[in-house]
Structure formats: C-alpha cells, structure tokens
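Figure 3 (text version): structure tokens given as input.
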C-alpha cells in the first residue's frame, strides 16, 4: 500500500506561538496554496482511494479540495500541547522545556500528550488502512503526525523526529506491505 502523507498549507499563526490542537487560520492566499498542493499529487485519486483528514480546519480545507468524500479521523490531530497551547515558546516554564528536551518521546506537557502517545494513536489509522487493503490512501494532517508516522514506518527513534522538517503543503509518500516499509518520497 502506498500512503501519501500531506501537511496542511501555511498558517497565519503568530511567530513563536506553541500550537498543536489550537485552531489556527490558514494564511491569506490559502486557496492558491491548496490548489498547488493538489497539482503536485504523484497519482490520481480514484473513488476507491481513502482520503482521511485531521478534523482541524487547516487540514480539512485541503482534504475537501482533494475529495468530496474525505473523512475526518481524530487520530490524525496534531500533538496535544495541553497547557502550552497558544503560549509563546519563550514563556513556557524552563524546567518543563528541559524535561521535554531530555525525553521528547515520553514527556507530556501538563494536560497534553507525549509523542509516543501521538504515534500510537496515529499508527492505528495505518493499521486499519492495511487491514482494509486499499492500494493507495491519503492522509491530510500535521507535521508532528507525519514525523511520527514516518518514524514508526522506517524504525527511526522518536527522539530523532525533530530532525525531519515537513514543509507546509509537503507531500511524503510511504510504502507499507508485508515485504517492506519505506519512505518513498519526502517533501515532494
């Protein structure tokens, strides 16, 4: 199965603000951004191609351009930063940031979730897709989810996911089957 992981287009969030689950608007010109992403798809979407989207509006704007029958999947939501949401990164408690940097995979911000928890929920979506057997699928989601899924698929330690930069509107294609799991293209 080939899965296309697509990050939503650029947002209009203030620089330096922590946002994960926070609903942030797309930047002015988002319609052109969405159209450009759709034009870069490596293969045609057919009626039997599942298109799943995070429920965030910034993802749904792209998903609805790709498919009239896309479905939202809560497991594709971005990392829940809990009490850190909507706060400037520079104003977050230094001791919490230090604990997070020492254990990126397992530390959860107060009231939030860890990267390991995000990976667990998002990878359930992949397992279900594999069980249902489509040849291809599209997931419209967030950079944190894409990094976690790529790490899960290729066996990259979660502590190293921050090294993967996912562009706004970036397309990453993975292949998953009984014989192999591989990253086929990155930030296409």
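Below: residues designed for each position.
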């Amino acid at each position: 199965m080939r899965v296309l992981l697509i990050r939503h287009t650029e947002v209009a969030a203030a620089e330096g603000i922590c946002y994960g689950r926070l609903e942030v608007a797309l930047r002015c010109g988002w319609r052109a951004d969405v159209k450009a992403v759709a034009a870069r798809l490596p293969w045609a979407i057919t009626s039997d191609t599942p298109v799943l989207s995070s429920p965030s509006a910034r993802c749904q704007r792209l998903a609805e351009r790709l498919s009239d029958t896309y479905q939202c999947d809560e497991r594709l939501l971005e990392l829940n930063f809990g009490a850190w949401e909507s706060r400037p990164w520079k104003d977050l408690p230094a001791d919490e940031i230090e604990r997070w940097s020492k254990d990126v995979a397992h530390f959860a911000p107060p009231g939030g979730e860890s990267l390991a928890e995000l990976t667990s929920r998002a990878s359930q979506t992949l397992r279900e897709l594999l069980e249902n057997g489509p040849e291809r699928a599209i997931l419209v989601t967030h950079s944190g989810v894409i990094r976690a899924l790529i790490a899960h698929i290729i066996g990259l330690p979660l502590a190293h996911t921050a090294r993967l930069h996912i562009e706004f509107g970036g397309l990453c294609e993975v292949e998953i089957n009984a014989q192999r799991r591989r990253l086929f293209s990155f930030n296409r």
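The mean pLDDT is 96.
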